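Q: I'm teaching a short session on how sequence maps to structure, and I want students to see two examples side by side rather than one. Could you give me a first protein with its sequence written out and its structure tokens following it? Keep the formatting plain so it prints cleanly on a handout.
A: Of course. Example one:
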Amino acid sequence: MTLPIDPDWSTATLGVRAAAPETLSRDHSLPIALTSSFTFESAAQAAASFADPDPDAFIYSRFTNPTVQAFEQRLAAMEGGESCIATASGMAAIFTLCLAVMKTGDHLLTSRGLFGSTTQVFNNWLSRVGISVTYVDMADLQAWDAGFRDNTRLVFVETPSNPLMQLVDIAGLSALCKTRGVPLAVDNCFLTPILQKPLALGADFVIHSATKYLDGQGRCVGGAIVGDAQRVGKDIFGFMRNCGPCMSPFNAWVFFKGLETLKVRMDAHARHANEVALWLAQHPKVDTVHFPGLPQHPQYALAQAQQRTGGGIVSFEVKGGRDTAWRFIDATRLCSITANLGDARTTVTHPASTTHGRISAEARAAAGITEGLVRIAVGLEDPVDLIADLDRALGGA
């Protein structure tokens, strides 16, 4: 039995208390159900479970597991959704969504400047099953409006985008989608339900790479899709049941526990990132800072309307191109050189040669990803120490 959710609870409280199962042994911390299958009291019960599976009945951990279910229910509550499906990775969540709601001959409308692996999936794998893709300027609602086709079946966006921190007007785009009956999916990885609520702004699906902030310490890989009871709880669940891109119970337990501290961590990440962005904006060796919490960001007003803060990611362009960017990265001491983000430890990467290195130079240029661009996921270190490290590294670069 899962303890009931109070509708008046805040997102922070939901992260700590929602979907906490009441076990026979009355565990205060969620136990891990490390089992591949579950037993039945009789052959008749087994047959009934397979014929019409009850979401609260457990059959096989590919699609029903109590630890995974607890994570799904807690994240759904925090996002304001009815249902959640946990997947093996964030990319598995994106691919699962696409194949569950689209078919051969359908059209996907999305934006330029997506995460590199997402672009690879859209260009190289959806095309193999006959799904076409159109990319538009994410900040231009008129471009979105013009991009729809009669066979458009899904609109997919990242906001903020990776790595340039560009925004999509979620409410405005949702209105365009609803007039055509096309669902809108929003990748909420950078902000989490603590800093942005896409469903409340009109989105139909929320995508997560749980690997990032939901974990918060760089330990496990996972993903999630949140939405309504029919499309997520039944249609996408059916895809998961048969195709199996499932999350492991151990990873689900890590993410479930990570949600308990998400509010505290996201507030700290955002506060530290704001200090770093303000400092970088004044540095003579930095051309441009991409951070929606800065008043000079071209979409600052939109960020103030649909986000609680600017988030924890800061991208900036150093003068001197790739050579200077690499020297700067190599000279840091408090920054881990890795493409992952959302960790307690600050991470730094050069998007043009890592996360977006496998897409064409033309596609990178169209997305605004320059050779001098550096992305920092600001961690939980003291920002005074972090800024001192960045200052020394920029001096050396």
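Q: Perfect. Now a second example for contrast.
A: Example two:
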Amino acid sequence: MGANPLGLLPEILLLAGAVAGLAAGTFAPRERQGIVAWICGAALVAALGATAAAAGGPSGMSFAVYASDALTDVTRGTVSATTLLVIVLARGWVRNDRRETEVYVLILLAALGTIILAGAGDLLVFVAAYTLASVPAYALAGFGKDAHGTEAALKYYLMGAFLGVLMLAGVTLLYGLSGATDYLPMGERLAYVPGAAVTCAAVLLLAGVLFKAGAVPAHFWIPDVAQGASPVIAAFVTTVPKIGAFVALYRMAAEIFAGVGSHWSAIIVILATATMTLGNLAAFHQDNVRRLLAYSTVSQAGYLLVPVAVAGHGGLARTAVLFYVAGYAITNLGAFAVVVATRRDTLADYSGLARRSPGLALALVVCLLGLVGTPPTAVFIGKVLVLTAAWDAGYGWLAVVVVVNTVASVFYYLRWIVPVFTRADVERPAGGEEAGEAAPTGIACLAAVISVLLGCASGIVFALG
């Protein structure tokens, strides 16, 4: 079986943290449920430590179905770090709620499912991880039990369930064609299967993966959840699940579909072009900042699909995926942290933010320009890697599409940045709401700093990798 339980230590620590947090919250009084946040946070820190310790070791498989390699390690580290920041954001939002414990535990379980998505080397494990990453997120989206949150959760659930059924049909068809569910043997056997059958199975399989990734045509839930759910949950579901989804997509592209006679690359290229273009076009006229960020995440998904499309054309595609998801995750989370700190949802509400809270305004500008891909931020390095990978693989026209969409995206990010530095029609008193939200403000500033440092230190990161 190739058993290697220690290879699963970060995942075991997260599961133990979720179980311990649930048990502690069951017996703790309402005003003491904050201890669960500390338990879940400790589990995430321990998982980060275990990931760092395992990162220098050799790659391998645990129980022959779960990979412990660079793809999994980067996912573990990125998911654990971003989820830890989400736990801190959630503490201010859900403090003293009678269901406070459930929020922390559900976030941790969804993060665990996201990591398993990336490390799965077998389609059955992937399906289980998809369920674990999805069901807690459905509950979190409707946690407020208000009209908008309930509608968002229902749309989220129905789309996830429908596309999940299509994904299961794809898994079944792939098993029928290859007689295997683990990735590498399946890829070898599919080489002898008619390409049309493999293409059909790949399209069905992509339905569920694109839902988690937030890519076209499975993106419709993102703006509704981003606007209807709490800003903290919107930050989580538009950031963390994408990490595991894109790493899983890359692993499938490299291990299952790289050597088969299907039209995998053509499908992904079309989806990448449609996703980045439609995401940008839909964001142009958004006045609600959460919907703007939602469509921004759709466009970012399009950029991330590019290295997936060229996964079989060199090792640079893997570096592009890993660096881009890490840079995007911290930058997008920083932008949402500003929304949490200000508790304001329209572009006009941000007028005069630079005067009321200069540090928060600077963090917002860095994060938004980072999402554009402005040097020296991490997303800039990620986009350079994406462009290089596409060019080296012979997709020069796709690199041009990425550049055009990047330039176009500047418009709607500037629509948010410009009001920050203009005088508000009605001046709010000094020391207003922004000043009182210390934790979200700190996280926004920290995310902005990490984004810049990660971009500046990218050479060191690549050398270590």
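Q: What should students look for in example two?
A: Point them to this: Residues 263-465 form one domain. Also worth mentioning: The two ends are 29 Å apart (CA to CA).
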